[in-house]
Amino acid sequence: MKTLIGLPKLRAFLTLALSLTLAFGAEAAAAKRKIIIDQDAFGPASSNLQAILMLMQAPDVEVLGITVTSGDGWRDEEVGHLLRLLEIAGRTEIPVYAGAVFPLVNTQARNKLWEQLYGPLYYKGAWTEVWPDQGALQRSPYHADPYLLPPSPAGTPKLKVQKESAANFLVRKVNEFPGQITVWAGGPLSNLAVAAALDPQFASLAKELVFMGGSFNPIAADNAFAAEYVNAPRREFNMRWDPEAASIVLHQPWPKIIQVPVDPTTKTFFKPEFFKEIAKGKAPFDDYLVKFGQSFPMWDELAAAVWLDPSIITRSSTVLEDVDTSFSASYGNTLSWAVGSGPGLGERPVQAVLDIDLPKFEQMTIDLLSRPKR
User: Fold this and answer.
1) In whole angstroms, what is the distance from residue 66 CA to residue 90 CA?
2) How are beta strands 61-68 and 208-212 bridged, if at all?
3) How many Cα neighbours within 13 Å face the side chain of 260?
4) What is residue 199's three-state secondary structure?
């Protein structure tokens, strides 16, 4: 004879089950790694935006927001590219905040004077008037007006940028979640320098800083993109766009700093066959990547992957680091010393990633960019 559960006991059981479900759900949400992405989000597609997609696609990551700075392009045009991507990816819940339009000190006029003194720069981001031959097929024409919004082939977004400034958002969030937020930077460090000026505790309240930038002694691979480092091995665009901001940020009291310099990226390349693999996936943005994606070294994708899975790192070194802010031939260059050997002006230890497991990284990138929206 079957025994029926009494109504009071059934209610108690259901209440307990619901409580456990909510508790486990809250614990799972709390376990997600919190991140703020700071990026010069030029597009459509690009290493900038593909890195953002990788971070958004990771199942154990909570993207609290994305802050945008000028760099590869002008801020407002980049914001438009990013908002449109979020619409296509179905991730419109992620807020976007506009940050620095210009570097703290550097200007296009200063850049031109520097080139008269020391020779032409290979790449100047938003200030690049004549583009290198390699691959820039989807690049909008050069324009000096930072507030001009050329039409994007990916379409005009309906999603709007937040009214709060990028720096204020950064400061507010690390105060809200002290010790829990990774600040991940794929472009110039202007927004982070402004945030540090707003709140001297900003960096110390973050969990860590992970950034793509700087250069030590990169070895050119079988593509032309590393050619600029042969005669200027310590020069890299993200630091060179806003050297003063980079120096300020590297002197902040971050609990931990992880750097992906140019060095391990020279052997990476987003091969055309990668896009064919991605096209077989189920991500809502796969058609977008296949249509607008271009083959470049995987600069920012690698910085995303290093944070997502540090096991891809095969060699790194801890150094003290700064950026040259003298208006000399080495303006914007990476400066480094062995730990204990620096000038003692507040240099911070930095874990610089120097080599990676390339096949593992490539497969990880394809997997993240192919999976369905999480």
Assistant:
1) 15
2) unpaired
3) 27
4) coil
Digit-coded pLDDT (tens) for 195-204: 999 999 999 9
pLDDT digits (tens, 9 = 90+) for 30-43: 589 999 999 999 99
List C-alpha distances in Å: 234 to 222, 237, 255, 308: 20, 10, 25, 26
Residue 5 DSSP class: P
Backbone angles phi, psi at 108, to 5 degrees: -65, -35
Are 196 and 248 in contact by the 8 Å Cβ rule? The answer is yes
| The pairing of beta strand 33-39 with beta strand 181-185 | parallel
Scanning the structure block, which residue is given the tokens 């590219």?
A: 81
What pLDDT, in 10s, does the model give residues 241-291? 999 999 999 999 999 999 999 999 999 999 999 999 999 989 999 999 999
Where does the pLDDT of residue 130 fall: very low under 50, low under 70, confident under 90, or very high at 90 and above? Answer: confident
Could you tell me which of 183, 120, 342, 350 has the C-alpha nearest to residue 250?
Answer: 350
Distance, CA of 372 to CA of 182 (rounded, Å) = 25
**Complete DSSP assignment for 238-286:** HHHHSHHHHHHHHTS--S-EEEE-SGGGTT----HHHHHHHTTS--TTH
**Helices (DSSP H) in the chain: which residue ranges?**
7-31, 46-57, 75-89, 108-118, 166-176, 190-198, 202-205, 237-241, 243-250, 272-278, 286-292, 299-308, 358-370
Within 8 A by CB and 6+ apart from 263, the residues are 215, 216, 217, 218, 219, 352, 353, 354, 355
**Residue labelled with tokens 């766009």:** 241
> Is the separation of the CB atoms in 101 and 70 below 8 Å?
yes
The number of angstroms, rounded, from the C-alpha of 309 to the middle of its chain's C-alpha atoms is: 15
Q: What is the pLDDT of residues 77-91, one digit of tens each?
A: 999 999 999 999 999
Cβ distance 36 to 181 under 8 Å? yes
Burial of 167 (0-12, 13-18, 19+ CB in 10 A): buried
pLDDT category at 227 given cuts 50, 70, 90 is confident
Say how far apart CA 86 and CA 183 lie, in whole Å. 20
The pLDDT of residue 113 is above 50: yes
